[in-house]
Request: fold
Amino acid sequence: MLEEKSESLSLGSVIVIFDRDYGTFFFRDLRAYGSLTDDAEWLLERTPQRSWGIMIRPVACGEKYGLWVGEYGPHSNQVIREEITFDGGASSISRALFGYAEHRVEEKEVRRIVTIDTCKRKIRGSRIIQDFKHYTCPAKRFYEDCPHVKETYEAIRSKYGLGVKVHYSLILNVISNVKQCDDVLICPFLSRPNPFERIIVLNETLRSRKLGEIRIVDGNLVQIT
Reply:
């Protein structure tokens, strides 16, 4: 059914892979079979370093722009789920990818526009995209954008004040209230088995954002600054 539908589509010559473990890859000037599924599987055969992930490809039908979305599993060259979407968010991403395929948009720009987070935010109707999960939260996202870091620090500061030394268990109590993001299997903030490591990771992230510090004073106390 999907293959029949694709016969009336114009296919962009670019495929983007969002891999759970290895990140994002852009493949331009694709010349394979001219079939959505066959082209995707042809590309999978030539990219062996994969776990779980999804692929997107721009498509057009007349004046309508959309995306083909496919999902693959580990150590497999097969697309296990696929769909085509023409909703509003898919249209803007599709246009950007067509521009990249036609060498009108630089890769740096298209990488800024086309991210898995953007796709999740804009393409709510795609079950495959919404089901995508990172294995571990990407470092850039965690250290620069994780909302839980700032929320946790503000909760600690509000509860205990600045310059105060408190038992580390009180900090861990606040951290324990953080809800893990739905699209991440392992959170670098919450998954540490050693309680001190959680505080160390929190402190590293706070310092990288210049929000403050939670310093370990000794074996039991930490200081909020």
Summary: The first helix runs from residue 2 to 6.
